[in-house]
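Quick one:
INPUT:
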Protein backbone atom coordinates (compact mmCIF):
# COMPACT_ATOMS: atom_id res chain seq x y z
CA UNK A 1 0.00 0.00 0.00
CA UNK A 2 1.52 3.37 -1.03
CA UNK A 3 2.66 5.69 1.72
CA UNK A 4 0.93 9.10 1.59
CA UNK A 5 2.99 12.24 2.21
CA UNK A 6 2.79 13.94 5.59
CA UNK A 7 1.40 17.10 3.98
CA UNK A 8 0.32 18.45 0.61
CA UNK A 9 0.37 22.10 -0.43
CA UNK A 10 -2.46 22.79 -2.88
CA UNK A 11 -4.06 26.07 -3.93
CA UNK A 12 -6.17 26.56 -7.07
CA UNK A 13 -8.73 29.37 -6.78
CA UNK A 14 -10.20 29.69 -10.33
CA UNK A 15 -13.67 28.46 -11.18
CA UNK A 16 -13.97 26.26 -14.28
CA UNK A 17 -16.90 25.78 -16.63
CA UNK A 18 -16.35 23.01 -19.18
CA UNK A 19 -19.20 22.47 -21.64
CA UNK A 20 -19.55 21.93 -25.38
CA UNK A 21 -21.45 24.73 -27.13
CA UNK A 22 -21.84 27.04 -24.15
CA UNK A 23 -20.88 30.28 -25.94
CA UNK A 24 -24.45 31.52 -26.12
CA UNK A 25 -24.79 31.44 -22.32
CA UNK A 26 -21.39 32.83 -21.29
CA UNK A 27 -23.15 35.96 -20.11
CA UNK A 28 -24.95 33.95 -17.43
CA UNK A 29 -21.58 33.19 -15.81
CA UNK A 30 -19.90 36.52 -16.47
CA UNK A 31 -22.73 38.62 -15.03
CA UNK A 32 -21.80 37.33 -11.59
CA UNK A 33 -18.25 38.63 -12.06
CA UNK A 34 -18.66 42.05 -13.70
CA UNK A 35 -21.11 44.30 -15.52
CA UNK A 36 -18.81 46.41 -17.71
CA UNK A 37 -16.80 43.99 -19.82
CA UNK A 38 -13.84 44.29 -22.17
CA UNK A 39 -12.90 41.35 -24.42
CA UNK A 40 -9.17 41.21 -25.19
CA UNK A 41 -8.11 39.41 -28.36
CA UNK A 42 -5.22 39.86 -30.75
CA UNK A 43 -6.00 40.30 -34.42
CA UNK A 44 -4.08 37.13 -35.31
CA UNK A 45 -6.05 35.08 -32.77
CA UNK A 46 -9.46 36.44 -33.67
CA UNK A 47 -10.57 32.93 -34.56
CA UNK A 48 -14.07 31.51 -34.96
CA UNK A 49 -15.72 34.92 -35.20
CA UNK A 50 -19.23 33.46 -35.13
CA UNK A 51 -18.60 32.03 -31.68
CA UNK A 52 -17.11 35.33 -30.52
CA UNK A 53 -20.27 37.08 -31.74
CA UNK A 54 -22.40 34.61 -29.76
CA UNK A 55 -20.32 35.28 -26.67
CA UNK A 56 -20.56 39.04 -27.14
CA UNK A 57 -24.35 38.91 -27.57
CA UNK A 58 -24.73 36.73 -24.50
CA UNK A 59 -22.64 39.14 -22.40
CA UNK A 60 -24.61 42.12 -23.74
CA UNK A 61 -27.90 40.51 -22.69
CA UNK A 62 -26.69 40.00 -19.15
CA UNK A 63 -24.52 43.05 -18.39
CA UNK A 64 -24.38 46.82 -18.86
CA UNK A 65 -22.11 46.60 -21.87
CA UNK A 66 -19.17 44.93 -23.60
CA UNK A 67 -16.50 46.09 -26.02
CA UNK A 68 -14.05 44.02 -28.07
CA UNK A 69 -10.50 45.39 -27.86
CA UNK A 70 -8.46 44.07 -30.79
CA UNK A 71 -5.85 46.79 -31.32
CA UNK A 72 -3.01 44.31 -30.67
CA UNK A 73 -1.92 42.70 -33.94
CA UNK A 74 0.17 39.61 -33.08
CA UNK A 75 1.73 39.74 -29.62
CA UNK A 76 1.48 42.48 -27.02
CA UNK A 77 4.43 44.78 -26.45
CA UNK A 78 4.80 46.64 -23.19
CA UNK A 79 3.38 49.74 -24.88
CA UNK A 80 0.40 47.76 -26.20
CA UNK A 81 -0.36 46.61 -22.67
CA UNK A 82 -0.20 50.16 -21.30
CA UNK A 83 -2.58 51.38 -24.02
CA UNK A 84 -5.08 48.60 -23.38
CA UNK A 85 -4.94 49.18 -19.61
CA UNK A 86 -5.53 52.92 -20.11
CA UNK A 87 -8.54 52.17 -22.32
CA UNK A 88 -9.90 49.77 -19.67
CA UNK A 89 -9.60 52.41 -16.95
CA UNK A 90 -11.28 55.04 -19.10
CA UNK A 91 -14.14 52.64 -19.87
CA UNK A 92 -14.41 51.76 -16.15
CA UNK A 93 -14.47 48.04 -16.91
CA UNK A 94 -14.91 45.65 -14.00
CA UNK A 95 -14.35 42.41 -15.93
CA UNK A 96 -11.66 41.48 -18.45
CA UNK A 97 -12.41 38.58 -20.80
CA UNK A 98 -9.56 36.95 -22.74
CA UNK A 99 -10.72 35.35 -25.99
CA UNK A 100 -8.03 33.67 -28.04
CA UNK A 101 -4.92 31.59 -27.69
CA UNK A 102 -1.44 32.07 -26.23
CA UNK A 103 -0.91 35.76 -27.03
CA UNK A 104 -4.39 37.02 -26.14
CA UNK A 105 -4.34 35.30 -22.77
CA UNK A 106 -0.81 36.49 -21.93
CA UNK A 107 -1.91 40.06 -22.68
CA UNK A 108 -5.21 39.91 -20.79
CA UNK A 109 -3.53 38.64 -17.62
CA UNK A 110 -1.28 41.71 -17.45
CA UNK A 111 -4.01 44.14 -18.53
CA UNK A 112 -6.25 42.96 -15.68
CA UNK A 113 -3.53 43.99 -13.20
CA UNK A 114 -2.53 47.27 -14.84
CA UNK A 115 -6.16 48.42 -15.06
CA UNK A 116 -6.40 48.77 -11.27
CA UNK A 117 -2.81 49.61 -10.35
CA UNK A 118 -0.82 52.78 -10.90
CA UNK A 119 1.86 50.96 -12.88
CA UNK A 120 3.27 50.73 -16.37
CA UNK A 121 3.79 47.29 -17.88
CA UNK A 122 7.57 47.73 -17.82
CA UNK A 123 7.50 48.53 -14.10
CA UNK A 124 5.41 45.45 -13.38
CA UNK A 125 7.00 42.84 -15.66
CA UNK A 126 10.60 44.05 -15.71
CA UNK A 127 10.88 46.29 -12.66
CA UNK A 128 9.22 44.01 -10.15
CA UNK A 129 7.09 46.77 -8.63
CA UNK A 130 4.53 45.36 -6.19
CA UNK A 131 0.86 44.93 -7.00
CA UNK A 132 -1.04 47.08 -4.50
CA UNK A 133 -4.63 46.50 -5.60
CA UNK A 134 -6.50 43.38 -6.68
CA UNK A 135 -6.74 43.04 -10.47
CA UNK A 136 -9.91 43.43 -12.49
CA UNK A 137 -11.52 39.95 -12.39
CA UNK A 138 -10.35 37.93 -15.38
CA UNK A 139 -12.34 35.40 -17.41
CA UNK A 140 -10.47 33.26 -19.92
CA UNK A 141 -12.18 31.69 -22.94
CA UNK A 142 -9.51 29.77 -24.89
CA UNK A 143 -10.01 29.14 -28.60
CA UNK A 144 -7.88 25.99 -28.34
CA UNK A 145 -6.41 23.82 -25.58
CA UNK A 146 -3.39 25.71 -24.22
CA UNK A 147 -1.48 23.06 -22.25
CA UNK A 148 -2.80 24.60 -19.04
CA UNK A 149 -1.63 28.17 -19.52
CA UNK A 150 -5.27 29.26 -19.42
CA UNK A 151 -5.32 28.25 -15.73
CA UNK A 152 -1.89 29.15 -14.47
CA UNK A 153 -0.72 32.30 -12.60
CA UNK A 154 2.08 33.25 -14.97
CA UNK A 155 2.54 34.80 -18.40
CA UNK A 156 5.21 35.73 -20.95
CA UNK A 157 5.47 39.22 -22.34
CA UNK A 158 7.69 40.54 -25.14
CA UNK A 159 10.23 43.07 -23.89
CA UNK A 160 10.27 46.11 -26.21
CA UNK A 161 13.97 46.58 -25.46
CA UNK A 162 15.35 43.27 -26.73
CA UNK A 163 12.39 41.44 -28.26
CA UNK A 164 12.76 38.53 -25.81
CA UNK A 165 9.99 36.87 -23.81
CA UNK A 166 10.01 37.79 -20.14
CA UNK A 167 8.49 35.47 -17.54
CA UNK A 168 6.19 37.01 -14.95
CA UNK A 169 4.44 35.06 -12.21
CA UNK A 170 2.12 36.24 -9.44
CA UNK A 171 -0.93 34.88 -7.63
CA UNK A 172 -2.83 37.91 -8.98
CA UNK A 173 -2.65 36.33 -12.45
CA UNK A 174 -5.01 33.52 -11.50
CA UNK A 175 -8.22 34.01 -13.52
CA UNK A 176 -11.57 34.23 -11.80
CA UNK A 177 -13.16 31.84 -14.29
CA UNK A 178 -12.11 29.66 -17.24
CA UNK A 179 -14.82 28.80 -19.78
CA UNK A 180 -13.77 25.89 -22.03
CA UNK A 181 -15.98 25.12 -25.02
CA UNK A 182 -14.72 22.59 -27.57
CA UNK A 183 -17.00 24.05 -30.24
CA UNK A 184 -14.96 27.26 -30.16
CA UNK A 185 -11.98 25.13 -31.22
CA UNK A 186 -13.71 23.91 -34.40
CA UNK A 187 -11.31 26.03 -36.50
CA UNK A 188 -8.35 23.87 -35.46
CA UNK A 189 -6.56 21.96 -38.23
CA UNK A 190 -5.15 18.45 -37.83
CA UNK A 191 -1.72 20.05 -37.36
CA UNK A 192 -3.08 22.38 -34.66
CA UNK A 193 -4.63 19.46 -32.82
CA UNK A 194 -1.47 17.37 -33.04
CA UNK A 195 0.86 20.05 -31.70
CA UNK A 196 -1.50 21.23 -28.96
CA UNK A 197 -2.24 17.67 -27.87
CA UNK A 198 1.43 16.74 -27.64
CA UNK A 199 2.23 20.02 -25.89
CA UNK A 200 -0.31 19.04 -23.22
CA UNK A 201 1.62 15.77 -22.80
CA UNK A 202 4.85 17.75 -22.46
CA UNK A 203 3.40 20.15 -19.88
CA UNK A 204 1.93 17.24 -17.91
CA UNK A 205 5.29 15.46 -17.85
CA UNK A 206 7.05 18.68 -16.82
CA UNK A 207 4.69 19.12 -13.87
CA UNK A 208 5.09 15.50 -12.77
CA UNK A 209 8.90 15.87 -12.78
CA UNK A 210 8.76 19.02 -10.64
CA UNK A 211 10.12 18.76 -7.11
CA UNK A 212 6.90 20.50 -5.99
CA UNK A 213 4.62 17.83 -7.43
CA UNK A 214 2.50 15.78 -5.04
CA UNK A 215 -0.17 13.07 -5.16
CA UNK A 216 -2.89 15.59 -6.05
CA UNK A 217 -1.00 17.30 -8.86
CA UNK A 218 0.25 13.99 -10.22
CA UNK A 219 -3.29 12.64 -10.35
CA UNK A 220 -4.38 15.61 -12.47
CA UNK A 221 -1.38 15.38 -14.80
CA UNK A 222 -1.65 11.60 -15.25
CA UNK A 223 -5.35 11.88 -16.06
CA UNK A 224 -4.46 14.54 -18.64
CA UNK A 225 -1.98 12.14 -20.24
CA UNK A 226 -4.65 9.41 -20.38
CA UNK A 227 -7.16 11.76 -22.03
CA UNK A 228 -4.70 12.92 -24.69
CA UNK A 229 -3.54 9.38 -25.38
CA UNK A 230 -7.11 8.17 -25.94
CA UNK A 231 -8.54 11.17 -27.77
CA UNK A 232 -5.89 12.87 -29.89
CA UNK A 233 -6.17 10.44 -32.82
CA UNK A 234 -10.02 10.42 -32.86
CA UNK A 235 -10.00 14.22 -32.67
CA UNK A 236 -7.74 14.45 -35.74
CA UNK A 237 -9.50 11.75 -37.77
CA UNK A 238 -12.90 13.32 -37.19
CA UNK A 239 -12.70 17.10 -36.63
CA UNK A 240 -16.45 17.13 -35.90
CA UNK A 241 -16.00 14.75 -32.97
CA UNK A 242 -16.58 17.33 -30.26
CA UNK A 243 -16.46 14.66 -27.56
CA UNK A 244 -12.84 13.86 -28.40
CA UNK A 245 -11.95 17.55 -28.69
CA UNK A 246 -13.66 18.23 -25.37
CA UNK A 247 -11.42 15.60 -23.80
CA UNK A 248 -8.37 17.55 -25.02
CA UNK A 249 -9.78 20.73 -23.48
CA UNK A 250 -10.27 18.76 -20.24
CA UNK A 251 -6.70 17.51 -20.42
CA UNK A 252 -5.43 21.06 -20.82
CA UNK A 253 -7.37 22.19 -17.74
CA UNK A 254 -6.09 19.27 -15.69
CA UNK A 255 -2.53 20.05 -16.75
CA UNK A 256 -3.08 23.69 -15.82
CA UNK A 257 -4.31 22.72 -12.37
CA UNK A 258 -1.22 20.55 -11.90
CA UNK A 259 1.34 23.09 -13.13
CA UNK A 260 -0.26 25.91 -11.11
CA UNK A 261 0.69 24.05 -7.94
CA UNK A 262 3.83 22.17 -8.98
CA UNK A 263 5.55 23.94 -11.89
CA UNK A 264 6.55 23.59 -15.49
CA UNK A 265 10.17 22.67 -16.13
CA UNK A 266 12.93 22.14 -18.64
CA UNK A 267 10.71 21.25 -21.60
CA UNK A 268 8.84 24.52 -21.21
CA UNK A 269 12.01 26.54 -20.65
CA UNK A 270 13.56 25.16 -23.84
CA UNK A 271 10.36 25.82 -25.75
CA UNK A 272 10.06 29.42 -24.60
CA UNK A 273 13.68 30.06 -25.51
CA UNK A 274 13.35 28.40 -28.90
CA UNK A 275 10.14 30.29 -29.68
CA UNK A 276 11.88 33.57 -28.80
CA UNK A 277 14.85 32.93 -31.09
CA UNK A 278 13.41 30.95 -34.02
CA UNK A 279 10.26 30.72 -36.09
CA UNK A 280 8.91 27.90 -33.91
CA UNK A 281 5.86 28.58 -31.79
CA UNK A 282 5.86 27.37 -28.20
CA UNK A 283 3.48 24.46 -28.93
CA UNK A 284 5.66 23.11 -31.76
CA UNK A 285 8.71 23.41 -29.54
CA UNK A 286 7.07 21.57 -26.63
CA UNK A 287 6.17 18.78 -29.04
CA UNK A 288 9.73 18.50 -30.33
CA UNK A 289 11.50 18.59 -26.98
CA UNK A 290 9.29 16.18 -25.00
CA UNK A 291 10.81 12.81 -26.03
CA UNK A 292 14.35 14.18 -25.75
CA UNK A 293 13.74 15.63 -22.28
CA UNK A 294 12.17 12.34 -21.20
CA UNK A 295 15.18 10.37 -22.43
CA UNK A 296 17.54 12.73 -20.59
CA UNK A 297 15.65 12.30 -17.28
CA UNK A 298 14.99 8.59 -17.66
CA UNK A 299 17.25 7.20 -14.94
CA UNK A 300 16.79 10.07 -12.48
CA UNK A 301 12.97 9.92 -12.55
CA UNK A 302 12.32 6.26 -13.25
CA UNK A 303 9.59 5.82 -10.60
CA UNK A 304 7.60 8.74 -12.02
CA UNK A 305 8.03 7.38 -15.53
CA UNK A 306 6.39 4.13 -14.47
CA UNK A 307 3.24 6.12 -13.63
CA UNK A 308 3.42 7.84 -17.01
CA UNK A 309 3.83 4.51 -18.80
CA UNK A 310 0.68 3.19 -17.13
CA UNK A 311 -1.23 6.33 -18.09
CA UNK A 312 -0.22 5.55 -21.69
CA UNK A 313 -1.58 2.00 -21.34
CA UNK A 314 1.88 0.48 -21.52
CA UNK A 315 2.30 -2.93 -19.90
CA UNK A 316 4.61 -2.55 -16.88
CA UNK A 317 3.97 -5.95 -15.29
CA UNK A 318 6.85 -8.31 -14.50
CA UNK A 319 9.61 -5.96 -15.66
CA UNK A 320 12.15 -3.80 -13.85
CA UNK A 321 11.53 -0.15 -12.95
CA UNK A 322 13.99 1.01 -15.61
CA UNK A 323 12.35 -1.19 -18.25
CA UNK A 324 8.96 0.19 -17.26
CA UNK A 325 10.32 3.73 -17.42
CA UNK A 326 11.59 3.08 -20.95
CA UNK A 327 8.04 2.08 -21.87
CA UNK A 328 6.93 5.63 -21.01
CA UNK A 329 9.28 7.10 -23.60
CA UNK A 330 8.27 4.42 -26.08
CA UNK A 331 4.60 5.23 -25.47
CA UNK A 332 5.20 8.88 -26.31
CA UNK A 333 7.13 7.98 -29.45
CA UNK A 334 4.29 5.68 -30.61
CA UNK A 335 1.93 8.66 -30.51
CA UNK A 336 4.42 10.75 -32.48
CA UNK A 337 4.86 8.04 -35.12
CA UNK A 338 1.11 7.65 -35.58
CA UNK A 339 0.68 11.41 -35.89
CA UNK A 340 3.78 11.74 -38.11
CA UNK A 341 5.08 14.56 -35.91
CA UNK A 342 8.66 15.74 -36.58
CA UNK A 343 10.93 15.12 -33.61
CA UNK A 344 13.98 17.15 -34.64
CA UNK A 345 14.69 20.88 -34.60
CA UNK A 346 16.48 20.56 -37.95
CA UNK A 347 13.17 19.67 -39.59
CA UNK A 348 11.93 23.18 -38.71
CA UNK A 349 14.90 25.05 -40.22
CA UNK A 350 16.44 25.79 -36.83
CA UNK A 351 20.17 26.41 -37.26
CA UNK A 352 22.66 24.52 -35.12
CA UNK A 353 24.54 27.76 -34.43
CA UNK A 354 21.46 28.99 -32.52
CA UNK A 355 21.56 26.21 -29.91
CA UNK A 356 23.98 27.87 -27.42
CA UNK A 357 21.87 31.04 -27.37
CA UNK A 358 18.71 29.00 -26.84
CA UNK A 359 20.42 27.25 -23.93
CA UNK A 360 21.52 30.57 -22.41
CA UNK A 361 17.99 31.94 -22.47
CA UNK A 362 16.43 28.69 -21.22
CA UNK A 363 18.69 28.51 -18.18
CA UNK A 364 17.68 32.05 -17.17
CA UNK A 365 14.02 31.25 -16.49
CA UNK A 366 13.41 31.29 -12.72
CA UNK A 367 10.94 28.39 -12.71
CA UNK A 368 13.82 25.99 -13.41
CA UNK A 369 14.48 26.04 -9.67
CA UNK A 370 11.60 23.57 -9.51
CA UNK A 371 13.71 20.85 -11.15
CA UNK A 372 14.64 17.84 -9.06
CA UNK A 373 18.32 18.53 -9.73
CA UNK A 374 20.29 21.51 -10.96
CA UNK A 375 20.62 21.67 -14.74
CA UNK A 376 23.63 23.72 -15.91
CA UNK A 377 23.84 25.28 -19.35
CA UNK A 378 26.10 22.55 -20.76
CA UNK A 379 23.54 19.90 -19.83
CA UNK A 380 20.78 21.93 -21.50
CA UNK A 381 22.95 22.09 -24.61
CA UNK A 382 23.21 18.29 -24.48
CA UNK A 383 19.43 18.03 -24.71
CA UNK A 384 19.36 20.56 -27.55
CA UNK A 385 21.99 18.66 -29.54
CA UNK A 386 20.01 15.43 -29.08
CA UNK A 387 16.87 17.24 -30.30
CA UNK A 388 18.66 18.66 -33.31
Amino acid sequence: MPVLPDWVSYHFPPKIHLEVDCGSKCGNFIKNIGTRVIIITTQKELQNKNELLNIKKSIERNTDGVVIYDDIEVNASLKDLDSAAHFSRQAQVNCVVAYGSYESINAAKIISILATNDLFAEELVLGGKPIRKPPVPLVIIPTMPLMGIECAPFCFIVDDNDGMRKYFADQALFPELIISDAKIGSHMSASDTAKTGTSILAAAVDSILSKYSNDVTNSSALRAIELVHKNIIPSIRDPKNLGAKNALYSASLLTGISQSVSSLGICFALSLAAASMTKLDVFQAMSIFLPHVMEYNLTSSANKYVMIARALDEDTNDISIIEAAIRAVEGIRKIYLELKIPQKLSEYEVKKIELPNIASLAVSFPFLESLQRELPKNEIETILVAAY
